[in-house]
Design goal:
Oligomer: single chain
Distance between the termini: 14 Å
Helix content: 40-55%
Number of helices: 10
Number of strands: 8
Mean pLDDT: 96
Strand content: 5-15%
Strand order of the largest sheet: 5-4-1-6-7-8
Shape: elongated
Length: about 230
């Protein structure tokens, strides 16, 4: 990061993306799921990365109940795609029970950074291109209590970097963009927040920071404020 804080600015809030910013998926959980399916199909698991989004299409999952129904159907279709032919619904339910809301891993510095922001009196929220279970997924990894708002794209109706999703979060916390920090692992989504007036960081954990607002750890947000 090659920028310094404008000392005349007063910050009141910090907003975070979820995936690859606060938490990431557990490869061991994905591997375990594949082995579970192989035990039923009797053949090697073949990943079908587009199946979820092909089934989803253009629909919005407006409620947690909508999401649960969709996920159960997804697991049934995943089993069929792998050649499983019997006990589809029972086995889909077993996959759902084992993996829905599970498999998230908190980055090593996440809790310490959130503790710092909390201790300094910041209001905090999450803005994520995801489904209505956003709060539940953060409860599952012990992070939900840090946040006062959980804004997901399916309920807002647009995805980042559309202004409405950021504006919804600002409205829920009662702050302005100029009073707020934001961090996201997608540069275009960090840029979208910055265009509205946020002080926005792009976190690039797996690559070398190249731009002024690039950071490699959430702790650099604290360094900036100090």
């Amino acid at each position: 990061m090659n920028v310094r804080r404008d000392k005349t600015k007063i910050y009141k809030a910090a907003f975070f993306d979820r995936d690859h910013t606060l938490i990431h998926g557990d490869p061991a959980a994905r591997e375990q799921r594949a082995r579970m399916i192989e035990g039923w199909s009797g053949r090697p698991f073949v990943a079908q990365e587009d199946l979820f989004f092909r089934l989803l299409g253009d629909r919005q999952l407006l409620t947690v109940e909508n999401e649960i129904a969709f996920c159960r159907n997804y697991f049934a279709e995943l089993l069929r795609s792998q050649g499983v032919t019997d006990q589809i619904e029972t086995r889909a339910d077993a996959l759902f029970d084992a993996y829905w809301l599970n498999g998230g891993v908190v980055y090593p510095e996440t809790k310490a950074v959130l503790d710092w922001f909390s201790s300094q009196g910041y209001r905090m929220g999450v803005i994520s291109d995801t489904f209505p279970s956003l709060k539940l997924t953060l409860e599952a990894v012990g992070l939900a209590d840090y946040f006062s708002c959980f804004v997901c794209s399916d309920q807002v109706g647009v995805m980042k970097p559309e202004p409405l999703i950021y504006q919804t979060a600002l409205h829920q916390l009662g702050v302005s963009a100029e009073e707020s920090l934001y961090v996201d692992d997608y540069d275009v989504e960090a840029d979208g927040a910055r265009a509205l007036g946020f002080t926005a960081f792009h976190i690039c954990r797996d690559s070398q920071p190249e731009r002024d607002w690039d950071i490699s750890s959430l702790t650099e947000m604290i360094d900036f404020l100090r």
